[in-house]
Every structure is written in C-alpha cells, then in structure tokens.
Amino acid sequence: MSPEVIASVAVSVLTAICGLWAARSARRTPRQEKRDDFIAVTDQQGKAIERLEKRIELREAEAEKQRDRIADQDEAIGWLLGRVRGLVSYIRGTGLEPPAPEPMSERARQYLRNVDV
C-alpha cells in the first residue's frame, strides 16, 4: 500500500468519524424535546387564558349594561305605578270609580307584590 492510499483511507475514516460526531451532536435529546413540549403547552395555555380573560371582561361589561338597564326599567315602573295611583286617587276624589284592572300574570304579580292593583 502506498502512503497516498493510506492517507486517503485515513482521511475517509476521519471524515466518517467527524460525520458521526456531527450527527450525534445535532440530535435532540429527550430532555430537549420535553422542554420544547412544555414551552409549547404553556404558550397554548397562556393564549387560552388570555381568550378566557377577554370573554370574562366582555361578559362583565354586558352584565353591567344589563344591570343599568334593569335599574332604569325599575325606576320607570316605579314612576308609572306612582302615576297610576295618583290617577286612581284623582278619579276616586271626583266621586267616580276607576275601571277594573285587567288580569295580571303571575310573573308580574310576583314582581309587583307591593302594589294594590
């Protein structure tokens, strides 16, 4: 064997060893895979939590609007009841009898339980 052939074989073997070493070092370890999986899961959970927080904020804003609307409706009903009572007392004051009230639903009766209609 000539020295050139030996050198060629040695370079080939050395290249193969370096290739194997590079392939081994480029391979991801199970620990790295688990870490990346954990990061991906925590990112997904963070996004899900942000979506839920936005939904909660939206629902709270809607609930606040509904509470305001209910309070306004309650005030309007109170004013109407006072007006009806005033009209009934005016009619009775003139010596007449007001018309008989129309039948009231049970839901309305529960809401207006303090009204003597």
Descriptors for this entry?
3 helices; mainly alpha; 117 residues
Count of alpha and pi helical runs: 3
**Share in helix:** over 70%
Give helix and strand order, one letter per element, not per position: HHH
Number of strands: 0
Quaternary structure type:
single chain
Span from first to last CA?
A: 121 Å
Task: Summarize model confidence as the mean pLDDT.
Answer: 82
For the sheet with most strands, the description reads: none
Principal-axis shape: rod-shaped
Beta-strand content estimate: under 5%
**Uncertain parts:** none
Secondary-structure content class: mainly alpha
Please compute the radius of gyration using only Cα atoms: 42 Å
Report on this structure.
- The protein is mostly helical and 117 residues long.
- Helices cover 80% and strands 0% of the residues.
- It has helices at residues 3-26, 30-93, 106-111.
- The longest helix has 64 residues, at 30-93.
- The radius of gyration is 42 Å and the shape is rod-shaped.
- The protein starts with a helix and ends in a 6-residue tail after the last helix.
- The mean pLDDT is 82.
Strand and helix map with partners:
Layout: H1 3-26, H2 30-93, H3 106-111
Short structural description:
With 117 residues, the chain is mostly helical. Helices cover 80% and strands 0% of the residues. It has 3 helices and no strands.
